[in-house]
Structures are given as structure tokens and as C-alpha cells.
Amino acid sequence: MLSLAGVRKSYGGHEVICGVDLDLRAGECYGLLGPNGAGKTTTLRLALGLAEPDAGRISLLGEPIPRRAREARLRLGVVPQLDNLDPDFSVLENLLVYGRYFGLPDGAIAARIPRLLEFAGLEGRAQSRIQALSGGMKRRLSLARALVNDPDLILLDEPTTGLDPQARHLIWERLKQLVAQGKTILLTTHFMDEAERLCDRLSVMDHGRLIITGTPRELIAHHIEPQVVEVYGEGAPAWAQVHARRLCRRWERAGETVFCYTQDGEPVLRTLEGQRDVRYLHRRANLEDVFLKLTGRDLRD
Question: Do residue 8 and residue 135 come from a single domain?
């Protein structure tokens, strides 16, 4: 569905994509994760033919990119990070006009619109103006609009940013439905729980390179200790000085929070019982722990 082989791209003498290899299989949800500035957006622009690589090969839906990018994009659906719905049009008109960009006749688009509105949970909203929609409704409409051409591959750039939990869960449900229908999804997100729930496979990108690829479960099992104890509060630094090196296989401090990574959390928990100047959380390791281990906790631009 999408293949990048040895792709490189530089701007102003600075290499921002450094030999990326990526293969997206039909019928999977693939996640591309990374901190700000890692190269995700540039990779997507290269894959869509919006920028030309300095080296390497790109194939999108069987078409060479960028030479036949226009032909490939006819079978592609895109949900951008920021909604770009036309405020001058109604919900229905946004879908109709967008369908015309793909050369679809109005009759074919009109026949698809009721099903798309139902999919997006926007039944009864066909004549609503964009300004009358909530943020969650706009996001669901953007997803419905990306499906108007019945694409084989759907690219979603941070699809649930800014949404409340109810809207996020509804988007997740709809994306799972699309994969069940045989669609292929390429997803970028900063929400690690979202990637862990949705992605069959994912890659973590940093400094223009893909540093790991695998299933969420594989990456958690191979790159992080199985249990985490988060210790926070005024007494956390003092607790860490006494106990962290002895009981934690690996530990980090971020602000007033100490993250203790261990094979067995019980000995750690016994040292915390009855202490009044600390609070703590005992949990299983997750994808966010892997992400922070590999890319660091420093704030990125």
C-alpha cells in the first residue's frame, strides 16, 4: 500500500529524513509516532508527492511517487491535523464539493452521503452550517469527507487532538470499523494509548530515522521493564535517594515524579506504605514508557 526505501530529504543543508524504510501492508492500521520535529510530517509529504526526495524510492498504492502522485491520490483519503472544512458550505455541500475533486458525478456522491453521515454520527445534520458543529462533529465530518471517494488507504494526522473522551472513543470505534472492512490506515498521533489501542504495527521516529518497528505488545515486552511505580510529592526525591538505586532496575526523575521501572513492584510498594509526604501509582508498563525511553523526556519545539 505504501513503500519507502532509503528515502532521504534535506532542507538548507540539514538532513531531516535519513534513509527511511517503511512498508505498509494492506488491511492494517500502522502508526507513525515521534516527538515534534522528528520528521513525521516531512515523511508524509514525501509519501503524498508534495515534496520530492533527494534519494530513495517511494511507491504509493502501486504508483511511483512523485511522478504519478496525482493518480495515487485518487485512491487515497486524508484527514489533516487541522480541520479545513469550508465554512461557506453546509455539511452536505462539503461532502458533495469534495467528491467532485475526484471526478465523481453528483449522483454517485449523493448516493454515498447518507451512509457517510450515518458513519460519522451526523444524521439529521446534512443542512447544518460548519459553524454550528462542535469540535467532535467537525472531526467526524472530516473523517466522513475522507471516505467520499471510497479510498483504499486512509491517512490520518493526529485525528483526535483536542477532542473530549467521548468523541475520541467514537473516532476509535469508527477507525476499527474501517480496518474491519478491509481499509488500510496510516495514523500519526501523540496519544500513546490511541496508538496502543488502534495500531497493528507502529514505528517510532526520531531525528529523521525510524528507530523501532513492531506491534505495540512486542515493543513493550522488548524495550521496557514490565512494572512501573510512579512516586510523586515532596518526599519523592528523598525516597529515591534511599531506595531507587536498590530496588529499581531503572529509574528516572521528571520534576517531582520518580519513575521506578522494575520486574517486581511489591518490594518498592513496601517502602512506600505509611509515608505521608509521597503518593504513588503502581501500573503495568505501556507504550508511553517505551516512547519516552527511546526519545527522552526533554521538551521538543
Answer: no
Pairing label, strands 257-262, 227-232: antiparallel
The residue range of the domain holding 19 is: 2-75+152-221
Q: What is the mean pLDDT of residues 245-264?
A: 93
The predicted pLDDT at position 298 comes to: 77
Does residue 200 sit within a domain?
A: yes
**Quick check: 121 and 133 in contact, CB under 8 A?**
no
Q: Is 135 helix (H, G, I), strand (E, B) or coil?
A: helix
Q: What per-residue confidence (pLDDT) applies to 183?
A: 96
Is 128 found in the same domain as 255?
Answer: no
How far, in Å, CA of 95 to CA of 174, rounded? 18
Last residue of one domain, picked from the residues 182, 201, 221: 221
Does this model's pTM top 0.70? My answer is: yes
Residue 270, pLDDT score: 94
CA distance 94 to 100: 10
Residues 53 and 159 grouped into a single domain? yes
